[in-house]
Amino acid sequence: MIEFYYWPTPNGHKVSVALEELGLPYETHAVNILRGEQAEPAFLAVNPNRKIPAIVDPEGPGGAPITLFESGAILVYLAEKAGRFWPADPRARHLVNQWLMFQVGNVGPMFGQCGHFKGYAPERIPYAIDRYTHETLRLYGVMDERLAEVEYLAGDYSIADMATWPWVRVRWFHEIDLSAFPRVERWYETIAARPAVQRGVALLADDEKIGDPSDETREAFFGRTS
């Protein structure tokens, strides 16, 4: 039974969706990042970087327990463990890894900064808003061009799609009109219809909250450096 440390955010949804898609048994441990639980000693023992998601698999490689943080690393591990959505063919596997890294290095950070300066920053900073809005739009354009050629980011449905889809799901937070990117819209709706994806985003859905942060949330997210 995989121990899954989670809160319903785009990064959390990457792994909850993957666990459901892969059919791996797991037990959820809620880490309420709105209250700063990511900084408590119990969670720091799992992830010293104070971020969700994280997992502990008591039946890791060689039968020994393994603890993992960073959503991209977790997705690769889970896909390898289950033998699904991570191709055996080296060329296909490298394509999946490429688009997974595209999400980890581009979509997540840039969409996140766009949402931060539009929804979390205590003051509006036009330069930052313009900078991250333009980069977010550029990345949507990259995906739209790619999805004109293939059905999913790496060709077949994979962990690269599971990683990217949750960030498009919160596009309202980035003030993106998805109809401007029709291939991304088609891709998004196709994935949204998958039952495992629906189960993944339903996990702790009543606790999902993005935007309009309280002072307590601001302190939990941005006020602690140690």
* CATH architecture annotation of the largest domain: Up-down Bundle
Structural class: alpha+beta
What portion of residues is helical? 40-55%
Shape: globular
Strand content: 5-15%
Mean pLDDT equals: 92
Terminus-to-terminus distance: 31 Å
Number of strands: 4
**Which spans of ≥5 residues are poorly predicted at pLDDT below 50?**
none
Radius of gyration: 17 Å
Order of helices and strands: EHEHEEHHHHHHHH
Number of domains: 2
CATH class of the largest domain: Mainly Alpha
Main beta sheet: 4 strands, mixed
Number of helices: 10
CATH level-3 fold name of the largest domain: Glutathione S-transferase Yfyf (Class Pi), Chain A, domain 2
Strand order of the largest sheet: 2-1-3-4
Describe this structure in words.
This protein is an alpha+beta fold. The protein has 2 domains: 2-85 and 200-214, Glutaredoxin, CATH 3.40.30.10; 90-194, Glutathione S-transferase Yfyf (Class Pi), Chain A, domain 2. It is 55% helix and 8% strand. It contains 10 helices and 4 strands; from the N terminus they run βαβαββαααααααα. The protein has helices spanning 10-22, 41-44, 71-82, 90-120, 126-147, 159-169, 171-174, 182-192, 195-202, 215-222, and strands spanning 2-6, 26-30, 54-57, 66-69. The model has no long low-confidence stretch (mean pLDDT 92).
